[in-house]
Structures are given as structure tokens and as C-alpha cells.
Design goal:
single chain, 339 residues, alpha/beta, Rossmann fold, Dihydrodipicolinate Reductase, domain 2, 9-stranded mixed β-sheet, 5-stranded parallel β-sheet, 10 helices, binds nicotinamide-adenine-dinucleotide
């Protein structure tokens, strides 16, 4: 909170001035959204590929900077949307220029690098936010209406092969989204992890499975693959008297609950009675209305509002570091298992 107030004081203009570093597949969308956001001014963008930078700048009526230092000098905040292994250097330079940073996921390639950035950000009094965009998925957010305390969580994320993202193993590319989701819904620390995986098309791990046990007894099973025919992104949550299934891709959330009286659920689309230990109980089926939203726009809006103290980051640097730490443990375990 104190930090938020200080952020307000150091802002150079009435609206934060923002920039985008790295305007490839995803970075161009950051440019588009900052142009649309009313509470930020887009100063411009920078990419080591100057031709690419010029094309994106022209497309979104922005300015292509020839030098990253010149962009940082005029910005209060930047999005870092460069390949993962460059996040550390790009974000470090931005933070040293007193810029708040929105870093696309994963925060960095190693936990040591993430720790370095977190320390530096604290010293420079700037915010780090991380692009774990699934946390803003309206289908997942629908769970907030329920008292979630899972005993078992099953998450599956499958994607057809594309070259993009294969600079890192599938655990850091895809599974890290689900690790972040898991850590956000299980209110306990990780007790132990088992993991295995295989390489199919690349030199690194393409298919991974992790079983994570938490201190409170919750068990989770996560499968991620980048060798699949169809895209699948599903989260299933099992807990005492509740089963929720969330299709992150289709934006569908369905919740089954056991309740004592039918009137205890006003949102149920269906209710059926059954006997448990001789007692009459009711199973309800709910399907919350999920409104389609542009989650990247929401995410960047949350970043802007967080840096001026109007909101708190949905995924801050510490959360990004926590997801990376678990992902790294899983990845190391898979490598050990193979050798
Ligand atoms: P990309 O390869 O399409 O684009 C990266 C761009 O960065 C390129 O234009 C490249 O020229 C530029 N670049 C490289 N090094 C640079 C540097 N030092 N300074 C400035 N520009 C530099 O990659 P992408 O698919 O857009 O992915 C970028 C990042 O976003 C990765 O970390 C990736 O993991 C992440 N990502 C996140 C999601 C998500 O769901 N949140 C989805 C896709 C990608």
C-alpha cells in the first residue's frame, strides 16, 4: 500500500507512459491493447528486429524506437515480451531505469534470476507483474463464487505442435500456466512432487506429467503436452460435496454440489435427490454465465491500475517466482528420471 502511494508520486505524467519491448507474436497484442487503454499513454516499442518493430509500429500507429534505452528513458512502465531467456537482461535494464515491468510468463528461465529481479524491483521501488493470463480467464474466475478447498485437482493442457515456445521445455511453456492456477486455488504449500516426461519432437521435454502433494493433503495431477491433435485446457476440482469442471478454452464452468435442502441453491439448473447414510440429500448442477472478455486487455489494465495504486496485481512477481520454482522442480525431476 505504502509502495502504491510512492508509485503515484513518481509517475512522470497524469497517465502512466508505457512501452513494449519485443513485438513478436504476443508483443504486438500488448501494443494494440495499450493503444486502446484510456488510462495509459503508449510511448512506443522496441524490438531487436528493427524491421519487425517498424511493421508493428506502423500497424498500430505507434513509434518504433531504435534504441531500448531511449524507450526506457520516457516510460513509467514496460511490457517485456521477448523470448524467455532474455527476460532477465531486458527486465533488469528496465527496472534499473525505474520502470515498472510486466513480464510475460515465465518470469525468467531460472529461480535465481527471478530472485534477482524481485530484489532489484524492491530496491528500485517498482512493480513486477507476470503474464499468467489464465488467472484472468472468466471460466476460472467463476470459481470465486464457491468456497474452494480441493482434495484433488486434475489439470490437462494439450496443444498441437508449433515451433513457438519450444525454446523452453513444455513444463516452462505450458505446464507453468497450470502450476500457477493450482497454487492460486490450493491454500497450502507443496509437500512433495513426482514427475515424469518424454521428448518426442524436440531436444527437450514435450510431454510431462506431475503429481503434486500439498501439506494440507490436497493432491494434484497435471498433464501437459505440445504434441496433440487438438487443443485441450481443462481443470477439474474435487472436494467434499463439490465437483467443478472448467473448460478454459471453451469458457464453460460446471459445478455439481451436494446440499441438504434444495432451497440452499438458487442458481441450480437441475436438482436431484439421493440417500446418503439413510439421509436425504440433493445434488445440484450449476453452470455460471461466463461473459467473454479480452483477458489480455484486463491483464494490462490490472497492471496499469496496480502501478498507480488503484488495484493490486492479480499475478505479482512473487506469484510468478512461485510458479517457476515448482515448474523448475518438476523439470529437474523429469531430467533425473530420464537419466
Ligand atoms: P516471438 O518469438 O514471437 O517474439 C519475441 C520478439 O522479441 C521477437 O520479435 C524478437 O525479435 C524480439 N526480441 C528478442 N530478443 C529481444 C531483446 N533482447 N530485446 C528486444 N526484443 C527482442 O515470441 P512470443 O511467442 O511473442 O513470446 C514472447 C514471450 O511471451 C515468451 O516469454 C513467451 O513464453 C511468452 N508467451 C506468453 C504467453 C501467455 O499465454 N501468457 C503466450 C505466448 C508467449
Amino acid at each position: 500500500m505504502v509502495k502504491s502511494v510512492i508509485f503515484l508520486v513518481i509517475m512522470k505524467n497524469d497517465k502512466p507512459v508505457v512501452g513494449v519491448i519485443g513485438v513478436g507474436h504476443l508483443g504486438q497484442h500488448h501494443v494494440k491493447h495499450y493503444q486502446l487503454l484510456e488510462d495509459a499513454n503508449l510511448a512506443g516499442l522496441y524490438d531487436v528486429d528493427s524491421k519487425r518493430a517498424d511493421i508493428v509500429a506502423k500497424q498500430y500507429k505507434s513509434t518504433s524506437f531504435k534504441n531500448v534505452s531511449d524507450l526506457l528513458a520516457v516510460c513509467d512502465a514496460v511490457s517485456v515480451v521477448t523470448p524467455t531467456e532474455t527476460h532477465i537482461d531486458v527486465a533488469e535494464q528496465a527496472i534499473n531505469n525505474s520502470c515498472h515491468v510486466f513480464i510475460e510468463k515465465p518470469i525468467t528461465k531460472t529461480v535465481e534470476d527471478a530472485d534477482h529481479l524481485l530484489k532489484l524491483a524492491e530496491k528500485q521501488n517498482v512493480l513486477i507483474q507476470v503474464g499468467h493470463i489464465e488467472r484472468l480467464n472468466p471460466a476460472l474466475r467463476a470459481l470465486q463464487a464457491y468456497n474452494i478447498n480441493p482434495k484433488f485437482v486434475e489439470i490437462q493442457r494439450l496443444a498441437p505442435y508449433t515451433v513457438r515456445g519450444t525454446d523452453v521445455p513444455v513444463v516452462l511453456d505450458l505446464m507453468i500456466h497450470d502450476i500457477d492456477i493450482l497454487l492460486s486455488i490450493v491454500k497450502s504449500s507443496v509437500k512433495n512432487i513426482r514427475a515424469s516426461g518424454v521428448s518426442i519432437l524436440t531436444d527437450s521435454i514435450d510431454i510431462a506429467h506431475a503429481r503434486i502433494r500439498f501439506e494440507n493433503g490436497t493432491v494434484a495431477s497435471i498433464v501437459s503436452s505440445r504434441i496433440a491433435q487438438d487443443k485441450v485446457r481443462k481443470v477439474k476440482v474435487f472436494q467434499q460435496n463439490l465437483y467443478a469442471t472448467i473448460d478454459l478454452l471453451l469458457g464453460i464452468t460446471e459445478v455439481y454440489q451436494v446440499i441438504d435442502k434444495p432451497e440452499d441453491s438458487s442458481d441450480a439448473l437441475m436438482t436431484a435427490s439421493f440417500k446418503r447414510n439413510g439421509e436425504e440429500k440433493y445434488i445440484t448442477y450449476e453452470k455460471p454465465v461466463i461473459e467473454e472478455q479480452d483477458v489480455l486487455q484486463l491483464e494490462l489494465h490490472n497492471f496499469i491500475c496496480s502501478m498507480i495504486g488503484k488495484d493490486v496485481p492479480i499475478v505479482d512477481g512473487k506469484a510468478g517466482r512461485a510458479a517457476l520454482a515448482v515448474a523448475t522442480q518438476i523439470q529437474d525431476m523429469i531430467i533425473q528420471d530420464i537419466h
